[in-house]
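Input/output pair, single chain:
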Amino acid sequence: MNQLRYLQLRVILLCCSCVLLSACFKESVAQDYTIGPKKVALFKLILADYCKKSFFGTVYVTSGDDVVYEANCGPRNLSSYTHFKRIAELHNIDPNTSGAEYQVGLNTSDSKYRIGSNTKEFAAALLQQMLSQEEIETKTIGDYLPWFPNNECKDITLHNLLTMSSGINNYSNNPEVYLNWGWRPYLYEPGLNLNGPEAFSNRFCTCQKQEVIPSFTPGSKFEYSNCNYYLIGNIIEQLEAEKQGDISSEFYFGNILKRNILDKLAMVDSGTFYAIGVYENMTTGYVDKYNPLLSDTTGRLPDTGVPDCQAITGLPDCADILESPYSNPMVLYSAGNMYSTVKDMHFWDKGLYGDSILDHDQKESAFTPYQKADNGAQDDKECQTQKAHNKVQCGKKPRGKKNDRAFQCEYFGYGWFVNYVPKHDRKKIHCPDKPSSSNIMNKKKYEKFVSYSGNYPYSWVTSFSRLLERNQAVMVFSNYNKAGYETDCIAQEIRNVIFYNKAYRSKHCKRVLIGTEQKQLFEWY
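Output:
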């Protein structure tokens, strides 16, 4: 009898061991983050659907120090490429010959792109370098900007600015801002002793045109506004220069950025735009001739297309691809005045895994999901598009778990969108308003990544995603998006392959590819 019980006990222990080993093995399989040939083959198939037809740009996928996928589409400069093709044909040069000397006008991994709102990641990091977390959470605009009007908005905290929860309205819908602002050194309103960026903020970002109060209780919700990061730039300069008005150029935001981040990471092909400058390998932005946003253009109208472009280059419909309307990047200041390359942004990604830019606690603060962003944004955008064509009546979805589900939950941290996706299986999940009190933070169920997609209203879109658990990054930078969504669709589809080993394409991106959906002006950050 005792022997029988002993055997039974051994069998039970053996079964328990098997269950435990099985669970450990399953977890170890799930933790295999290798990007191998099968995934790369899917990347190539994804890009082939967009490349040259509706997308010019560079795709760069990294894992640790390694570049696991690199591809380039279309011209950096269409005129240069067309001219090169003419000469190549005249002199019997094979235009497909590899080597930089033969790739005249084409995009490469050294192409420089306007990275737009990706600038905010850098601005947030600079402020974190200068101030303690306690100061960020308790100090206000009025504590650092003595020129700020004495109204309720001066009591907004720096934390509210960083998390897009200030209640200060966005200046981006005001065409006046893109005409004469951004030049330095230039005291636009010298009677007030304000330099250019300070005068801009004083005119557009001080709540003067919103009844001198925040549009909602600061900290109560997310609402995107470039003013938040414009004011952060003002504060960064004030902290360094210790005065307002006519400051030395060493205290300009771009030069502070260069000293404190770019030089440390050897990001030699990155920086901010100035009134006078030569930027080697800078991409030219392009826009489709039938883009509905062209009627909203301020400044120079787009150049006409090259009539014989398609015959010479083989690029479909390239006679309808116009050079982007003039836009002054300097006006975007600390909210969007940067350029970079995918190679340099890989340095930025790697630098954020160490302590040379931000320490562990600062990164924890930067990547915390403070405010819920608009997870239903795509449904809303589609609704707005259809409404514009009188197809449907739109209303708000009822609240509740069933009506607040998405394939990806999106929040905002300090200069980053903080995202969560389900592990192992792509399925819709509930996105709580307060993620800190929910199992959205459960690492066994959800994977976290941070991202930003910097947009210019007519051409450049730069999607940068950092997959934190994997030490991997996905960069899709472009200088032409026919519909406006292509860059983000490519990035999303590549991330899906990395997360789920399968190529998922949303209904939205399918419509983008067949040309039935275009971005609306209000959607651009």
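The chain has a mean pLDDT of 83. The longest helix spans residues 2-30.
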